Every structure is written in C-alpha cells, then in structure tokens.
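Our consortium's second objective concerns turning raw sequence data into structural hypotheses that experimental partners can test. To show how far this objective has progressed, the report includes one record in full. It was chosen at random from the queue rather than selected for favorable results. The single chain below, 309 residues long, was entered without modification.
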Amino acid sequence: MDDAAPKRRRGMLGFYVAALALVALAGLGAWLWTAWTNWQFDEHEARRRQAEAARQFGVPVETTVDLGGGVAIDLVLIPAGMFDMGSPEGEAGRTPDEGPVHRVRISRPFYIGKYEVTQEQWEKVMGERRGGFQTRPYNPRHPVENVSWADCQEFLKKVNALGKVKGQLRLPTEAEWEWACRAGTRTRFCFGDDDARLGDCAWFQENSGSMTHPVGGKLPNAWGLHDCCGNVWEWCSDYWGSYVANPWPAVFRYSRDPRGPISGSARVLRGGAWDCSSRGCRSDFRSTTGPRPRDGDVGFRVALSLPAP
C-alpha cells in the first residue's frame, strides 16, 4: 500500500481549504470596502458627521469671516468623505461631460460658504458695486454676479490680506463643490429626483422672474448650504477637462482630492442659475467658460482649508 497517497490527498485538501478561505476573505474584504465607502446618507447622518468632524478637529460647525462694518462671510464645515462623482448613464438630463462616474475621496474637512458671495460683501471688500441687476432696487443680500474667475481671485486676495482668517480663502475645487452640494445624496438634486420640488430649494428659470434673488431664501441642503442649485453659477478653482476613467478594479479605485487638469483655457462652473432649466441645476451638471468673461448669471462661493492640527 502506498503510504504517500493519503498524505497527498490531505495536502490537496488543505490546499483547497486554504484557497477557499482566501476567496472568502477576499469577498469579505470587498464587502467591507463597499460597506465602508457606501456614502449615501440622510440629513441626520450629515449633521452627525459635521458634528464629529468639528469635535475631532476642535473647530465649530459654523464660523464667520469678519469683513468689518457688520459685514461677514458665513462658513459651514464639510466633513471628509468618499463619494461617486459625476452622473450615471441613464440619469435624466445627463450630458457626456458628466461621466464616467468615478469615486473621489475628500481627505480632510473644509469650510465652504453657507451662501454665495453677496453684493454687500463684494462692495465691502472691493469698494464697488458689481452686477447686471444693480439698476434695480439695490439689495445687499443678492449674490454678486458679472464677476470673472480672475475677479474672484482679486476678491480672495484682498480678504486674505485682512488677516481675519486662519488660512487662505479660496475657490472650492470641483470635487469639493459636488461633495458639498450633494450632502450625502446620490440623486439628481440634493433633495431627491423630483423636478417639481426644485422650486423649494432653487431660483431657476421657472420661478426667478429672470433675475437673482437674496441668498438664503430657499431651503438649504442637509449640510446647511443655500443656493447650491440656482440663483447664480459658481466658479470652481479647476481648469475645465473631461473626467478620466480609472483602470483599477472598482473595489480599489478612487481619486484623492482631485484638482482637475494642470492647465487649460477655461474654468469650471457649477450649480446652475436663475436662467437655467431644472436640468442645469442638477448636482452633477457641469459648465465652463474662460476665466475673464463676466456674465449676469455667474457668481461664486468661497472655501477654506482647515489648518494642520
């Protein structure tokens, strides 16, 4: 009798058991990764994440930048997180520029403007009124418009020179903007998919009367940001460019704090405006123009990185 045969069989059995265990562990790992990065959440979870980020970094959920004379910029803390950026194939109103969907990790919390920058704030910093609607009754709470990307840089430079904030105010990246706008949702809008509800959260083509409106007049998203859709387009820091498909397997791939192309001739606009249809006010809708043109439907919102602990 061959005594080696049972040993070979036991060896093969051990090999198969080990192989099955590795497959099971890989499957469990993939499931855990998917569960960990499943970022869709509701308003309650959004608020909890904000509070946890504030506690962890020792900062308030909301803060202000004092511009003097009773004028201030309100900022809201956005936690770090991971999300699917872009619009999936089949989404109503989708354009090719909004895909492919790709996973993005925002690695650190940051502040972003609770509202779009207003006429009052612009005038306080720049010493001038700016906007195509200034011939109508002046309202300091209207968002500033007719500002180019380059104009925004001058505004930010002057605010930072005041020394009223720890760090440097800037424009948000496109990824930060979408993460902040979505506030945990995967739907077409930050509140869901129903176009009929857009009027509760946005000034757009159907309800704006062809003009801007005071910021904060509509419902905020789950993180407390107003006018993420509608009122005026908002500049982002990124150069315009197509999203790039990631060749890594889906369970592993994500981009960390993407900042768009390193060069280009145009910049990114997000959020839609008073003259847009509901399609242009979706969380993932993208637009672009050169950095120097000025339009009556384009404004901006500021962002601020947290200082290193």
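The partners drew two points from this record. Residues 1-36 form one domain. Residues 30-36 have pLDDT under 50 and may be disordered. Both points have been shared with the crystallography group to help prioritize constructs.
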